[in-house]
Amino acid sequence: MCTLEKRGNLFILTLIGDDEHRLSPAVIDSLLSALSQAKSQAIRGSALVTTAHGRFFSNGFDLAWAQAAGSSSTARDRLHHMVESFRPVVSALLSLPMPTVAAVSGHAAAAGFLLALSHDYILMKRDRAVLYMSEVDLGLTFPDYFTAMMRSKISSVSARRDILLGGRKVKGEEAVTMGIMESAHDSAESVVEASVRLGEQLAQRKWNGEVYAEIRKSLYPEVCGVLGLAAKAIIASSKL
User: In this entry, which stretches build a coiled coil (predicted)?
Assistant: First the structure.
């Protein structure tokens, strides 16, 4: 599950509960509800920081829940349900009317990695935390919006190859070099502290949230097209 705390103009979304923060249907619903709440309460100059307690930022979809169904066909249906339920969470982050920061203070794997990538800025712990797309090792293909997000957010073809086809586990400093992360930090606490500082700095710019969201969508036309997020022109300047 997750909680949403408002500190002035800053929203702090925190994944809580079990250590791995698996994205079960209940957790996905909780995320979507929190993002909807943040959007409804947003004012000019808001920002969002997403973090988690424990060793994991998120270890992806709750495969144990899918496998508990018994039959392989029902397990596939459950996995498909999580894939489709998570799609609106990614859409909500890409269209959220405020800057977003992911404080990756632990491992981020599979859909957990995608959750982090759905933010504007990502900060990460230097050691004892990795980014990992586990699908090739698990024998699973990628949903269309997963690969579209990877192409949108990771510019290096070789980096995408190593991550998606090689199952490469990427640590903080390497993620910075690849252009995935803004910065790497020595501890979970320092990741969160730096992320909150960045969120506060971004909030101080007091940008128009609707304009910000539309510019974000225009930056990533491929993944927004896959998700069905249509861009629209907005003129909010009083100087025109």
Answer: none
Kindly provide the b/e burial profile for residues 1-31, where b requires at least 16 CB atoms within 10 angstroms of the residue's own CB. bbebeeeebbbbbbbebeebbbbbeebbebb
Q: Does position 233 have pLDDT exceeding 90, yes or no?
A: no
How far apart (Å, rounded) are the C-alpha atoms in residues 123 and 191? 6
pLDDT in tens, 56-85: 999 999 999 998 877 888 989 999 999 999
What confidence category does residue 238 fall into, taking pLDDT thresholds of 50, 70 and 90? low
Domain ranges of the chain: 2-227
- pTM, whole model, 2 decimals? 0.94
User: What number does CATH give the domain 2-227?
Assistant: 3.90.226.10
Four-residue CA torsion sign, 91, 171, 180, 142: negative
235 C-beta neighbours (distance < 10 Å), count: 7
d(Cα 50, Cα 75) in Å, to the nearest integer?
29
Q: ∠ CA(55), CA(25), CA(70), 5° rounding?
A: 100
Residues 148-161: what's their mean pLDDT? 95
User: What is the residue type of 181?
Assistant: M
